[in-house]
Amino acid sequence: MSTEVGTGAAQSGSLAAILRTVGDGVRLLLVSIWRGLAYLRDRRIGVPRPRLGFLGRWEALALAVLTAGVVAALMLLVDPLTMGLRLKAPSWLVIFSDRLTDLGFSGVVLWPLGIGLAYALMITHVGDEMTRRIAASVAARLGFLFLAIAPVGLLVAIVKHSLGRARPHAAMHIKGPSPEMTFDFLIWKSSFASFPSGHATTTFAAAVAFATLFPRARTILLVAAFPIAATRIVLSSHYPSDVVAGAVLGTAAALWTVKLFAARRVVFAVDAGGTIVPMAGPSARRLARLLAPVNPARAGSSLPPPQDMSTAVPAQEARP
């Protein structure tokens, strides 16, 4: 009897220790996220202001009007021609598109980014000063990528379910003229969530965000985004107008996030002409310091102030 009681007490104590560790980790993560967002909000905007090509305020407005016109034209002239495209396309193209389209799911990119960001944020509260600086540098970059992709994806998900445009495969069963223009507002069904395309939004937001962070891979990333988004048309999940609208929204959101970070000199630097360039990040050797086990309890109840995320590790330890 006493042995059983002792075993039960040991198991209870072990469970309590696990729960405390998990609680410490969640607390650290929430505090870190709050501090990171507050840091980005409060950081002073630098001079000169970042510039994205020719896009000033009026140019951006003109481009938005032009995009709206193109999307409307596609709805009227091109979308009807793509009805039932999946049934007409070669079987190999449908199979290839079915495999490739998975890369456009938001979870494919957001889950790894989220897990990596959570880990890096917790590391900023443990370890020595250099490890914290490296973790802050990594967290800033992962945070930029996450903010460039996740919010616009969530917004598009709400909008497309609210508008309730019938997807091509659903519109085929709707009688009457112009079934591709069927909108059932606030129906909140997957088959009536066509406009705009969430896949295209996520794909282009991710491609643009990663391209600005890794300029050498810019061409590959941007070129790859087009066939991934186009698979939605081949599979009769979206119309061309849905894909174009999603691609524009994803691109605009990513570029806006770039300007947000660059204006505050976080992750990105701005030269005298206003051109945005990514800051150098930690070297692979320094990144290995982040692989040490994380013990949230080491941080204790008193958390240190947040690390400066505007810069990378010292120049001699960084690489482009």
TrEMBL record:
Keywords: Cell membrane, Hydrolase, Membrane, Transmembrane, Transmembrane helix
Residue ranges of the region described as Disordered: 298-320
Stated name of the protein: Undecaprenyl-diphosphatase
GO molecular function, one term: undecaprenyl-diphosphatase activity
Top-level EC class: hydrolase
Transmembrane regions: 61-83, 103-126, 138-159, 192-213, 220-237, 243-262
One Pfam family named in its UniProt record: PAP2
Membrane-related topology note: Multi-pass membrane protein
Keyword Mitochondrion in annotation: no
Ranges for domain Phosphatidic acid phosphatase type 2/haloperoxidase: 142-258
Cell compartments where the protein resides: Cell membrane
Species of the source: Xanthobacter flavus
